[in-house]
Amino acid sequence: GGYAGVYYDGTPNTEFRLFDGAVERIERGAFRSLIESDDDCIVSVNHDMTTLLGRRSAGTLKLMDDGTGLRWEVPYDEQDDDHRKIARKIQKREITGCSFAFTKAVDNWQRDDTRNLKVRTLTDLKVIELGPVIFPAYKGTSLGMRAEQSLHEYETQMMIEEIERLTI
């Protein structure tokens, strides 16, 4: 799991250079509608949808917004060749960042005269795919692995969190 997208916090690692004189930033809360919806989303490697690691509609992808950005988790499946391949690259720190793909965005453009930049701020995103990438657009993204957890333990934890979310 990791952070597929990070909110702008004033540092260069949380903005993406679109072209000379223009950057893109993600406003805090831009992933909220995704988190609150039941829209499907997948995790793949390097935006290659043939290397599917998890899927929201299958219950193997968990999405969270914890104030830093869009955080995601997929339980490790030792029977899945793609999981084994990417896990080894993560362990060797060959792949350390993440990215996301979206089909629709609400944004606004402003001028930052102090840096002589045009700034595109993404305020609401319809994310369809995310995951580990070799060259992340936003340098502040991250990727890692936790201790193994069985799919049953993962599903149980997801159900508990969903019940807690609904009762709050």
Summarize the structure.
The chain is an alpha+beta fold and 168 residues long. The chain contains three helices and ten strands, in the order βββαββββαβββα.
How would you characterize this protein structure?
By secondary structure, the chain is α+β, with helices and mostly antiparallel strands. It is built from three helices and ten strands, in the order E-E-E-H-E-E-E-E-H-E-E-E-H. The longest helix has 17 residues. The model has no long low-confidence stretch (mean pLDDT 91).
What is the topology?
Layout: E1 2-6, E2 15-19, E3 22-26, H1 32-36, E4 42-45, E5 48-55, E6 62-65, E7 69-73, H2 81-91, E8 97-112, E9 117-133, E10 142-143, H3 151-167
Parallel strand pairs: 3-9, 4-9
Antiparallel strand pairs: 1-7, 1-10, 2-3, 4-5, 6-7, 8-9
Tag the structure with descriptive keywords:
single chain, 168 residues, alpha+beta, 6-stranded mixed β-sheet, 4-stranded antiparallel β-sheet, 3 helices, 10 strands, 20% helix
Secondary structural class: alpha+beta
Can you give the helix content as a percent range?
10-25%
Number of helices: 3
Report the span from N to C terminus. 26 Å
Mean pLDDT: 91
Give the radius of gyration: 17 Å
Number of strands: 10
Estimate the global geometry from the Cα principal axes. globular
Task: Report the uncertain regions.
Answer: none
Helix-strand string: EEEHEEEEHEEEH
In this structure, how is the largest beta sheet organized?
6 strands, mixed
Strand content: 35-45%
